[in-house]
């Protein structure tokens, strides 16, 4: 058996297979991201009891329910502070927040900002499908200006978050963006981030053909993937302006920040305990 | 490095400090909170003291993050707490529901201020009694405790944590603007004495599903990092913890979440009965207000009126048996427009009267006496 | 299809049909086109892909695992030949 075949077998052990098929729509990108994530984790030889997955609410929020490790489906927007509690109490665990753009950046935006500032030792897998899928396709904090959703029937007047820019400005030591088309780069990025410390953010541009694509001339799963394929540009040294996402425009992907040696909150608190007990 | 624990002796503490020290003595090792008057000294004490005993303190970005963090920490087995005041509880309520639904032990201190809204930040209110139980959406039971002096603010923390752990439920620990900032002498017994009072979580049997209850209706709690592959969700779930969105699963789960508390209410109830035995009029009160009520009852007794006081230490589940057991008339003295009054009225066959102030101060003993005279004439 | 003959057959593709939701990423991304949409329908009403090996002798699976990596439903297992 080859390594890849072994990995596929192990993947089944990391899934709550009795719950498959999962709730996600045909062609939904979240499954692709989960697939890449599990492979990266397996490659890292992380023991299952040392891995914790925390999700918020929404389509991506359902991820925690399919990962066969200690996993928590929390309240809307609160995956990060929930994970902060786990990580701070048990710094030996690998704690991953696996959630969507609305959950992490709209209702949970304050937690994202402050957890990044404190540099908690968390890996954030942020699946950005440009919309609130679970509630039927309303516009969210990452919907490109001009896009059509159920709550922007005349086009979106909002400006979307530039997530890598946001994360870098907060000092996150690892920041990357890929699309679900980039399955290998994504897996390698997660693999790399799993071995780092601090607040690591990977944004994955993902397809929602069911409620986003069909209102924006990308009705089929493949048409959204083709959009990612044709419009993605890999540029690790992209400027903040280039990282901005526009309606049907270029998607700049890559590994935008990768710096080691920034102490995490959990590491800094060890020093606090030492001082308190002097 | 050596842990620094409280030594036996007498301390001069505010209610906030006593609650924090009581929590640490009762085994609390994780605190996440956001400052708010009049509870901030709980956070300050925790920031100072928790690392001294190897615990963790974190000041979060808001109250929502604070309660989310302590729910996460509680899953690792740490006895976890937060403290806030009414506005903070309003923000925490959604996650209180999550903790109820996923059965996570927590202690939440609410130093009540005058309310609604920002109200009277530094002054007493007792308007959060209904919020303590009914704040989050859905039908649920939680436990609410309320001391009335600083020694008790320390001692009752053991009950708060023990009940939370025993019943896998959040415990609301009420203080008020008066108790939070009032200083009194507190006796702390030797560590070996108070450590014996700590009740730990029960552990799951081998092969027991994470939400499979024992005969007492309470499922033992698996912990993160021990290979249980726990799944917890705020969705209606089965005994594996997996979502089960059927009326049958909802019926079974929500009934059990309520009944695991209500079937054990006699184990939870704590009250102080003061001269109630022969009383014609019993004043029901709690927290800071009950200190004036006791003085008022004493004044009434001097005048020959058979008055007594029933002080609720357990607010929820409501200790209704202590209402039904007396045939006296009741006055419910509270610093709000009338909340526990409705509960007393529900259980009493006799007349129930109100004595209210909207907040900012408690009644004077003379005001209590005046009301006792009015209803007993 | 004849160009595929320059590749050596390295693997077979197993489809876990009940998990499939018919997005066809596997069919589209296969570099040697070894998968096709089948006629049969699974319990959820989707047409899972079928491995063409037995139908078309020109088909050669090169064991790249792309179908497996793109499958959002964990419905594909690429089994490499010894």
User: Major sheet of chain A, described briefly?
Assistant: 8 strands, mixed
**CATH architecture term of chain A:** 3-Layer(aba) Sandwich
How much helicity do the residues of chain A have? 25-40%
Shape of chain C: globular
Calculate Rg of chain C over CA atoms: 12 Å
**Count of β-strands of chain C:** 4
Number of domains of chain A: 1
Mean pLDDT of chain C, as a whole number? 89
Describe this structure in words.
By secondary structure, chain A is an alpha/beta fold. Chain A has one domain: Thiamin diphosphate (ThDP)-binding fold, Pyr/PP domains (Rossmann fold, 3-Layer(aba) Sandwich), CATH 3.40.50.970. Chain A is built from 10 helices and 10 strands. In chain A, strands 2-1-3-4-8-7-10-9 form an 8-stranded mixed sheet, sandwiched between helices. In chain A, strands 5-6 form a two-stranded antiparallel ribbon. The longest helix of chain A has 14 residues. The radius of gyration of chain A is 18 Å and the shape is globular. The mean pLDDT of chain A is 97. Chain B contains 14 helices and 16 strands. The longest helix of chain B is centred in the middle third of the chain and has 18 residues. In chain B, the strands form 3 sheets. In chain B, strands 2, 3, 4, 5, 6, 7, 8 and 14 form an 8-stranded mixed sheet that branches. A 5-stranded mixed sheet of chain B has the order 11-13-12-15-16, with helices on both faces. A two-stranded antiparallel sheet of chain B has the order 1-9. In chain B, α1 packs across α2, α1 crosses α6 and α3 runs parallel beside α4. The relative contact order of chain B is 0.13. Chain C is an alpha+beta fold. Chain C has a single domain, classed as Alpha-Beta Plaits (2-Layer Sandwich), CATH 3.30.70. The relative contact order of chain C is 0.36. Chains A and B meet through β2, α3, α5 and α10 of A and α3, α4 and β10 of B. β2 of chain A pairs parallel with β10 of chain B, so a sheet runs across the interface.
């Amino acid at each position: 058996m080859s390594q890849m075949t072994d990995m596929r077998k192990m993947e089944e052990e990391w899934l709550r297979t009795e719950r498959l098929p999962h709730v996600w729509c045909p062609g939904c990108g979240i499954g692709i991201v989960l697939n890449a994530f599990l492979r990266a984790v397996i490659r890292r030889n992380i023991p299952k009891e040392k891995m914790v997955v925390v999700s918020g609410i929404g389509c991506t929020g359902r991820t925690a329910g399919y990962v066969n490790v200690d996993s928590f489906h929390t309240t809307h927007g609160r995956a990060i502070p929930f994970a902060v509690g786990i990580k701070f109490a048990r710094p030996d665990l690998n704690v991953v927040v696996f959630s969507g753009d609305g959950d992490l950046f709209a209702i949970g935006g304050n937690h994202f900002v402050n957890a990044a500032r404190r540099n908690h030792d968390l890996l954030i897998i942020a699946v950005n499908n440009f919309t609130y899928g679970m509630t039927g396709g309303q516009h969210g904090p990452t919907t490109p200006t001009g896009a059509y959703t159920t709550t922007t029937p005349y086009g979106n007047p909002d400006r979307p978050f530039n997530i890598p820019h946001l994360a870098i400005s907060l000092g996150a030591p690892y920041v990357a963006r890929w699309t679900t088309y980039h399955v290998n780069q994504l897996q390698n990025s997660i693999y790399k981030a799993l071995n780092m410390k601090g607040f690591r953010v990977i944004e994955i541009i993902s397809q929602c053909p069911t409620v986003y694509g069909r209102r924006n001339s990308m009705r089929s799963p493949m048409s959204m993937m083709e959009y990612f394929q044709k419009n993605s540009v890999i540029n690790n040294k992209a400027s903040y302006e280039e990282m901005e996402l526009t309606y049907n425009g270029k998607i700049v992907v890559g590994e935008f920040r990768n710096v080691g040696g920034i102490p995490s909150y959990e590491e800094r608190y060890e020093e606090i305990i030492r001082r308190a007990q002097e | 490095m050596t842990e620094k624990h409280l030594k036996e002796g007498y301390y001069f503490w505010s209610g906030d400090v006593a609650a924090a020290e009581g929590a640490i003595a009762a085994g609390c090792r994780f605190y996440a909170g956001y400052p708010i008057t009049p509870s901030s000294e709980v956070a300050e004490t925790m920031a100072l003291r928790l690392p001294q005993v190897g615990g963790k303190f974190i000041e979060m970005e808001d109250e929502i993050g604070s309660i989310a963090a302590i729910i996460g920490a509680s899953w690792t087995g740490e006895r976890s707490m937060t403290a806030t005041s009414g506005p903070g509880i309003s923000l925490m309520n959604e996650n209180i529901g999550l903790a109820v639904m996923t059965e996570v032990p927590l202690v939440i201190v609410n130093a009540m201020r005058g309310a609604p809204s920002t109200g009277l930040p530094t002054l007493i209110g007792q308007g959060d009694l209904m919020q303590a139980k009914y704040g989050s959406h859905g039908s649920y039971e939680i436990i609410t405790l309320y001391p009335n002096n600083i020694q008790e603010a320390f001692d009752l923390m053991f009950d708060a944590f023990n009940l939370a752990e025993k019943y896998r439920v959040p415990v609301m620990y009420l203080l008020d603007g008066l108790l939070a900032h009032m200083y009194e002498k507190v006796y702390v017994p030797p560590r070996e004495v108070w450590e014996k009072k700590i009740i730990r979580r029960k552990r799951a049997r081998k092969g027991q599903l994470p939400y499979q209850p024992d005969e007492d209706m309470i499922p033992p709690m698996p912990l993160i990092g021990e290979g249980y592959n726990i799944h917890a969700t705020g969705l209606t779930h089965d005994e594996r913890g997996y979502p089960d969105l059927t009326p049958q699963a909802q019926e079974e789960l929500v009934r059990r979440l309520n009944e695991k508390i209500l079937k054990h209410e006699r184990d939870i109830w704590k009250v102080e009965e003061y001269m109630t035995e022969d009383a014609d009029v019993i004043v029901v009160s709690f927290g800071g207000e009950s200190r004036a009520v006791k003085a008022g009852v004493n004044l009434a007794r001097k005048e020959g009126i058979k008055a007594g006081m029933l002080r609720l230490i357990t607010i929820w589940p409501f200790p209704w048996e202590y209402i039904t057991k007396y045939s006296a008339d009741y006055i419910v003295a509270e610093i709000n427009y009338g909340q526990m009054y409705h509960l007393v009225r529900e259980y009493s066959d006799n007349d129930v009267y109100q004595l209210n102030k909207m907040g900012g101060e408690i009644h004077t003993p003379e005001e209590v006496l005046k009301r006792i005279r009015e209803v007993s004439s | 299809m004849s160009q595929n003959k320059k590749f050596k057959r390295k693997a077979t593709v197993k489809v876990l049909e009940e998990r499939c939701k018919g997005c066809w990423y596997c069919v589209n991304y296969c570099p040697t086109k070894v998968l096709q949409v089948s006629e049969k329908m699974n319990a959820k009403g989707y047409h899972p892909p079928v491995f063409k090996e037995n139908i078309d002798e020109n088909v050669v699976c090169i064991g790249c695992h792309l179908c497996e990596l793109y499958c959002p439903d964990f419905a594909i297992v690429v089994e490499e030949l010894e």
